[in-house]
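[recover] target loaded
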């Protein structure tokens, strides 16, 4: 099967699994500990039911949505995932280019392989930046100034990585810094010759281009930058004071990514966050965290309606995007869905993932009698219909 023939996102995931060696695929797919969180994220969506409304003229409809005053063609965007260029060379830019083509937001991770300069060049207007706090605060401050100078308008500050989680698939596969080679790697190499060839012909271990400033990146080896990343991120000493500093330094829109508790949500907004990305980091950090979808109604209830709330985690159908919007999200982000597309088929694979999601959203809009995203609401979900006072 080719990426263009993928019928759903699960097909793209299968193609990605076929292309990449097991250690790589497992790193992308895996969650922490028992991977309860992966199931939690899916179940939160799967238990929701739409109650359709019929005899509504839906012949003209649009899923266009805006975020921080920017109009996009759909109510979802590509969330930050680090190290993309390791999974397939050029994957960061495949994601950026496909997002630009499709007119949806792209959030570049500060541990991506490609540089934020290249992403902005390729995907102007839709590229945002995600920042991890670093032990050495000057590293994060340098990144902030660099990104602001490029004209990037929106920063996502990730707060849900206070320590390295226990991702057991990586322990078993030896994926880490440095990689601990296992005997079965050689069999995997034989099964994935194209991946190996692309990896070697693009220079082997890829360099993370956003951790250090461009001039430092040029004179530092890929392995030393990876070590720097491992040393600097995570930082258990990050506090609200760091958010305060970031708010003071960053003049653009600021989104706090990874909040789950309503009090943290309220405090972030009180401290000047312009939006929140409610998230459990794709179940990669705290395995027994609730899903973003579970926490969304409680957070929506205590935050000014004008503040956009975004969610991510487990999105694998257009119906998931609509369900999140019905529960009060303004925008939805995907991580693995488009990344599988990038691994399976570069920009074309990402474009296919986006097209699949858009098509599923469009079909569901007709099914439930909606012509625009502002018509989504809890009134379309069975629980609210059955007990309207809830
Ligand atoms: C391979 C991978 C790498 C990730 N890297 C980052 C990162 O660098 N920064 C960050 O804030 N979140 C990162 N995340 C979390 C995503 O931004 C997002 O919260 C999560 O993937 C959403 O869940 P989903 O993959 O089920 O859509 C990563 C997720 C994956 C799968």
């Amino acid at each position: 099967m080719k990426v263009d023939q993928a019928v759903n996102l699960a097909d793209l995931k299968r193609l990605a699994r076929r292309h990449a060696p097991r250690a790589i695929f497992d790193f992308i797919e895996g969650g922490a500990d028992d991977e309860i969180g992966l199931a939690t994220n899916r179940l939160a969506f799967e238990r929701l039911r739409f109650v359709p409304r019929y005899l509504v003229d839906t012949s003209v409809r649009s899923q266009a949505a805006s975020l921080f005053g920017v109009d996009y063609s759909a109510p979802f965007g590509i969330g930050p995932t680090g190290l993309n260029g390791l999974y397939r060379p050029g994957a960061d830019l495949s994601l950026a280019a496909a997002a630009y083509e499709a007119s949806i937001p792209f959030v570049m991770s500060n541990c991506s392989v490609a540089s934020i300069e290249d992403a902005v060049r390729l995907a102007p207007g839709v590229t945002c930046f995600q920042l991890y706090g670093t032990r050495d605060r000057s590293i994060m401050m340098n990144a902030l100034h660099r990104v602001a100078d490029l004209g990037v308008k929106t920063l996502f500050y990730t707060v849900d990585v206070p320590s390295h989680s226990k991702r057991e698939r990586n322990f078993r596969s030896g994926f880490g810094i440095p990689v601990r080679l296992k005997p079965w790697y050689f069999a995997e190499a034989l099964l994935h010759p194209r991946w190996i060839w692309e990896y070697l012909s693009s220079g082997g271990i890829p360099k993370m281009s956003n951790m250090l400033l461009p001039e430092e990146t040029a004179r530092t080896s890929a392995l030393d930058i990876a070590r720097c990343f491992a040393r600097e991120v995570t930082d258990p000493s990050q506090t609200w004071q760091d958010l305060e500093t970031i708010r003071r330094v960053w003049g653009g829109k600021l989104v706090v990514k990874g909040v789950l508790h309503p009090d943290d949500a309220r405090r972030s907004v009180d401290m000047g966050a312009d939006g929140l990305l409610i998230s459990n980091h794709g179940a990669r950090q705290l395995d027994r965290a609730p899903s973003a979808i579970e926490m969304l109604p409680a957070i929506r209830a205590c935050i000014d309606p004008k503040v956009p709330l975004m969610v991510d985690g487990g999105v694998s159908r257009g119906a998931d995007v609509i369900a999140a919007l019905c529960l009060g999200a303004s925008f939805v982000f995907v991580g693995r869905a488009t990344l599988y597309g990038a691994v399976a088929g570069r920009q074309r694979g990402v474009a296919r993932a986006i097209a699949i999601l858009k098509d599923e959203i469009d079909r569901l809009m007709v099914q439930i009698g909606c012509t625009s995203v502002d018509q989504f609401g809890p009134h379309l979900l069975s629980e609210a219909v059955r007990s309207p006072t809830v």
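[recover] notes: The chain is about 45% helix and 10% strand.
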